[in-house]
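Figure 2 data, in text form.
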Amino acid sequence: MLKYTCLNPIAGAGLEMFGENYEKVETIEEADAVLVRSASMHDMDLPKNLEAIARAGAGVNNIPLEKCADQGIVVFNTPGANANGVKELVIAGLLLASRDIIGGVNWVQAERQNEEIAKLAEKQKKQFAGHEIQGKKLGIIGLGAIGVLVANAAVNLGMEVYGYDPYISVDAAWKLSRNIKHINDVNEIYRECDFITIHVPLLDSTRKMINKEAIDKMKDGVVILNFARDVLVDEEAVVMALKEGKVKKYVVDFPNHTTAGEKDCIVIPHLGASTEESEENCAKMAVQELMDYLENGNIKNSVNYPNCDMGECTCTCRLAINHRNVKNMISQFTRIFGEADMNIANMVNKSRGDYAYSLFDLEQPATPEVLERIRQVDGILKVRVIK
């Protein structure tokens, strides 16, 4: 019986996918696998029996990735599962920044007791007038799952879309509308675009990439949208640019003391992926990843180990080995199997940075002696018999 626990509420549509061979437990100490959303795991003691963690969402800054890798714990995320929900809110952000919809709604609320509200509205509505987004230039920094959806939607709304991503995947490129202008220099987006939205992961190289220097290159009256991470933007520089009139609006999905309540900041309470559909999609993908890893040893969408897939486990024995990415590992494994008169039917070895992962389909069951010899190899982090 395989055991899992949830550190946050996880959509039932995902948990229902666990079959009769799975049992939900209350504590991480009992679990083979963990499902998590926002709970911080940095100060947790991770038990030796823990095999995998799946984050129902894209960001994994709440999980100690290297600590997990050192213990042979594979960490998954669910890229793209919530992309449509975020895309729709980005489009809403474009409209909210273009027309003073919020100001108009607040005016109606304030005048709700006025019997002449309809007549008064005709006089007052001009103060909430804005601009259409059709024909405007939208710059998208980062063409991953969300960026591609935003780009295609904006094209369909009649916008002129510039896309920048030096590391765009083949899959993303295929999904991208041919009407997108692919830009090789992000400075061209800064110079040309009326709206700029950022959709990149948080790395040392991307932290505060939208800073004063970048803002100074932008058109006067530019609108900046941030539905990725607040720290991708130097928000103190943005607030100053808003006050100076350089930036027209800043739309952000991450409330904090820097932007909350500031004039011309439209601050949304982290609603990007907060839809029933997104939560269900993330839960389903996370559960699928855990089940495929626990039952077949396959890795898909890991953030600390390489992707690795040998399909469904149908052999006599499948062995999964998490180890350090050092020389001569495979030769040591094959020598151990050979000396035990065990034949390898199939195998795969993948590496990622300092860590590697090997799968072996064997024609004979792995004996306790063989397993112990493999565990004694220098650099081994975890050895698991799948079947």
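Caption note: The first strand starts at residue 2 and ends at 6.
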